[in-house]
Amino acid sequence: MKEAPIFIKIDQYKDVLDILHLAKSKIRDARVLIEKINELKNAEDTEIKTWQNSLDEVEKRVMFIDKSLFEPESL
Fold first, then answer.
1. What separation, in Å, do the N-terminal and C-terminal C-alpha atoms of the chain show?
2. How far apart are CA 62 and CA 54, in angstroms?
């Protein structure tokens, strides 16, 4: 199959270039947003882990108090 040249009007060519430039710009913007979302997610995950650790510590203390009150001989 022989390829033939494609002819388009200059103004259409410029429109295509503008559209491609806009698409590239939007892709860059989307990548920046995804990176920001990822940073926020990581910060959120860290905060949740801190809350879990705090809750675990509170639970341990409550269990110790409970055991001290109701099973003092086991200490």
1. 89
2. 12
